Amino acid sequence: MYRIAAKDRMLVDEFRQQPIGPHSPDLQRVLNTMRTGPNEGRYCLICTKPYQEWQLARMSGRRGVPPTRVDGVFYNSREAAEWDVFRRRWKEATGEDLN
Prior knowledge:
The chain is an alpha+beta fold. It has helices at 11-17, 25-35, 78-94; strands at residues 43-49, 53-58, 68-75. It has one domain. The chain has three helices and three strands, in the order ααβββα. It is globular and about 35 Å long.
């Protein structure tokens, strides 16, 4: 399995500029790495108002059990929501905080 390396840091700007995609093969590899493994506790998004509002949540990791919403963390754009989830997953994968 691929592990995110220091050289992948340059891909953060690519994601920031285009969080919905399309993505380069290198960035897609990093995203695939962030999206694989156990689902329990993984950050995700819940659309609370179509095309208007999203809320941060964490997956349960069990089929049929809905994600747990993170209180007070809402977004007004999908791009902002995707960027925040990327930052959180990056921190979990690398230990590096993206500001």
